[in-house]
């Protein structure tokens, strides 16, 4: 789906409870708001909730998310069910966001992309991390210049990663059990020269001190120097790292914010699981509310200053 409007006051990365609540509060501050991401990718989608204040009984996460989207639409929030694949500063003020098939600009960004809980769970996977196995193309692609690599995944992160690697590596396989991407990204993949193996899963990793090959579920053995496991969407950490957003210094798994949900970069706010434990809907919604209000105030201030000049 193409959106006509390309400039927004606020773009929210993430369509979970944090992003949805942020969207509602930002829109009520008279800001134009675009929410990116997929509700089916929210941690809440398959969960059942019985500890969320004022909601009695056991509620399906899917129903709560659909209600939240509808509520936000009523406040004028726009949605695009695509992932952000690139974010960067737009000159002195504002940001550019590239999605699977479009690009947008905004004055303020809210990062509400949740956390990834996924790995392949294969024997030897943990031991081979950093020795051929990586979870981040943008971080490690350069180590595989001229090498043979495979990427595993079904979403935008895997496809974008495979296309990026194809410019660096000598051979790139994309192993997927079934792609879930936009038409635009599919076209880019078709034109890239990446060899797509589908519907396939990885059955076994070969190598002790270093990855040597992967064996697929049809017994095909691919001799590779690297395997990038890119499940789901473009990781928030990669998007954040590009923008210089501060991450927690010990494990680099969470975004650091102040009590206004502001990051170290003016105009960038964060909310929900991406900001750390506890991974709970109530916390995500609370932080989303604050992030939406803070981003709204930030945009209003920029607009007032622009009017004075
Ligand atoms: C099995 C299970 C049971 C749970 N039970 C409970 C419970 O009983 N009570 C409770 O309070 N909590 C529970 N939780 C936790 C709760 O679901 C999370 O805390 C909550 O969903 C976090 O919200 P969030 O908005 O931060 O992230 P999420 O809900 O995970 O949403 C993340 C969003 O970011 C989007 N996204 C990711 N990458 C990108 C990108 N590159 N560009 C654009 N968008 C992107 C995704 O598409 C998704 O829409 C449970 C979780 C699980 C997995």
Give an overview of the whole structure.
By secondary structure, the chain is of the alpha/beta class. The chain has two domains: 7-116 and 235-308, 3-Layer(bba) Sandwich (FAD/NAD(P)-binding domain); 133-229, FAD/NAD(P)-binding domain (3-Layer(bba) Sandwich), CATH 3.50.50. Helices cover 28% and strands 23% of the residues. The chain is built from seven helices and 17 strands. The chain has helices at residues 17-27, 61-74, 137-140, 156-166, 183-192, 236-243, 281-308, and strands at 7-13, 33-36, 48-49, 59-60, 78-80, 84-89, 95-99, 103-111, 133-134, 148-152, 171-175, 195-197, 202-206, 213-216, 221-223, 226-229, 268-270. The strands form four sheets. Strands 1, 2, 5, 6, 7, 8 and 17 form a seven-stranded mixed beta sheet that branches. It has a five-stranded parallel beta sheet with strand order 9-16-10-11-12, covered by helices on one side. Strand 14 and strand 15 form a beta hairpin. Helix 1 (17-27) packs parallel to helix 2 (61-74) and helix 1 runs parallel beside helix 7. The two termini are 37 Å apart. The model has no long low-confidence stretch (mean pLDDT 91). The structure holds flavin-adenine dinucleotide (FAD). Flavin-adenine dinucleotide binds next to helix 1, helix 6 and helix 7.
């Amino acid at each position: 789906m193409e959106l006509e409007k390309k400039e927004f006051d606020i773009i929210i990365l993430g369509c979970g409870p944090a992003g949805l609540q942020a969207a509602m509060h930002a829109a009520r501050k008279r800001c134009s708001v675009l929410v990116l991401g997929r509700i089916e990718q929210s941690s809440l989608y398959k969960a059942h909730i019985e500890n969320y204040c004022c909601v009695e009984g056991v509620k399906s996460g899917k129903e709560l998310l659909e209600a939240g989207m509808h509520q936000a639409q009523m406040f004028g929030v726009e949605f695009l069910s695509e992932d952000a694949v690139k974010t960067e500063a737009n000159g002195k003020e504002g940001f550019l966001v590239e999605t699977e098939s479009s690009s947008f600009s905004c004055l303020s960004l809210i990062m509400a992309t949740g956390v990834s809980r996924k790995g392949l769970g294969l024997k030897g996977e943990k031991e081979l991390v950093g020795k051929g196995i990586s979870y981040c193309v943008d971080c490690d692609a350069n180590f595989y210049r001229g090498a043979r690599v495979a990427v595993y995944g079904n979403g935008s992160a895997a496809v974008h990663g495979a296309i990026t690697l194809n410019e660096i590596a000598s051979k790139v396989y994309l192993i997927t059990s079934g792609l879930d991407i936009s038409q635009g990204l599919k076209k880019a993949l078709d034109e890239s020269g990446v060899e797509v193996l589908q519907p396939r899963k990885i059955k076994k990793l070969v190598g002790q001190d270093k990855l040597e090959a992967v064996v697929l579920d049809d017994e095909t053995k691919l001799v590779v120097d690297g395997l990038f496991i890119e499940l789901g969407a473009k990781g928030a950490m990669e998007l954040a790292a590009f923008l210089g957003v501060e991450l927690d210094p010990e494990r680099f798994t969470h975004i650091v914010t102040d009590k206004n949900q502001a990051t170290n970069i003016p105009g960038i706010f964060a909310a929900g699981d991406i900001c750390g434990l506890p991974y709970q809907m109530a916390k995500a919604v609370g932080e989303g509310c604050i992030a939406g209000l803070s981003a709204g105030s930030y945009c209003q201030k920029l607009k007032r200053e622009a009017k004075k000049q």
